Amino acid sequence: xxxxxxxxxxxxxxxxxxxEPLGVSVAVLDPSPDCAAGRIADHVVAAYDDPAGLDEVSxxxxxxxxxxxxxxxxxxxxxxxxxxxxxxxxxxxxxTQDRAREKELMAGLGIKVAPYALIDSADDAAAxxxxxxxxxxxxxxxxxxxxxxQVRVKTADDLPAAIAELGGTDLIYEGLITFTxxxxxxxxxxxxxxxxxxxxxxxxxRDGILACTLAPAPExxxxxxxxxxxxxxxxAEALDHIGVLCVELFDTPDGIVANEIAPRVHNSGHxxxxxxxxxxxxNHVRGVLGLPLGDPSARGVAAMVNIVGTEPELAALLxxxxxxxxxxxxxxxxxxxxxxVTLVADSxxxxxxxxxxxxVLCDAAWDA
Length: 368
Ligand code: AMP
Fold this sequence. Notes:
By secondary structure, the protein is α+β, with helices and mostly antiparallel strands. 30% of the residues lie in helices and 27% in strands. The protein has 12 helices and 17 strands. Strands 9, 10, 11, 12, 13, 14, 15, 16 and 17 form a 9-stranded antiparallel β-sheet that branches. It has a 4-stranded parallel β-sheet with strand order 3-2-1-4, sandwiched between helices. Adenosine monophosphate is lined by residues 114, 137, 144, 147, 174, 176-177, 182, 205, 208, 248, 259-260. The site of adenosine monophosphate has 13 residues, from strand 14.
């Protein structure tokens, strides 16, 4: 079997790694000549909307999938015209590319989300404040990531300036949720509707970027864990999503509130390579190719620590017992995810010391 992937970054690299033992060959489309996945997959160097590039990456492919949600609509149309199945289906992209449609979908499913109002001009500010109040967060509806394209609004008076700062139109204003921590849930769904639901995890961010994931989320009440998983399942089913998706959540004293959907494998699921019976990457490959899904259960407890900006010394990381290092082969740059390290143990207590060692090294290297 052969899989085409739009995007050749570290997510595609880990998808290709998962595909290899299954005998599935991989081609990636990525304009960057030194993209991470190009090290192990056939690499088509072209823009995502380049017709010849799209034809090339889909040549001989059973399915084309993607590793990022901002795939141009024209790319998907071109592939569809050539009769190449694109999975997840385009609906997963069109809805999750737009924060407003995403929130509308989840609210319609009865999932708790932050109060929100759409802003298309400065004139919408008063009505948005009436509905949502302040403080809040103003976000661009499209193309935001890792905390980019958003501005905190402390008081009602700050909203007009924030609207101007983000371009005045196509914005969403959300009420600020007071959360105790951030969680996420990863779900894989097969072409036959079968599901593999990973345990919800706890995520800590730094500078708007994921810094550390603890899997499963420590001390999450069973009813909240079930609710988080149910949120992931209802989103996957509502989108008729095939493959992996992730829903980011806030844990609040009043229960779980959903924030956003990523229609793809997710950084908060990297722990599953070593920490789950079947990783999110393998389950995505299995899912889109119509193969049976694997077991998403955790093997003990795991922690994943991101390496951002610059890399700690490899030998120091490898000296931590049980550390698994994944290096994406990218050059250092502020705010850039370069690698991650995963630790797996039998208990939270057994994880504490190796995790602390990894945190010290990775935290010091972060944009150092
Ligand atoms: P997002 O791009 O929506 O994932 O937002 C980036 C980060 O901003 C989240 O991980 C949260 O830490 C924070 N955030 C986003 N939306 C809200 C909200 N409505 N209330 C509180 N914090 C938020």
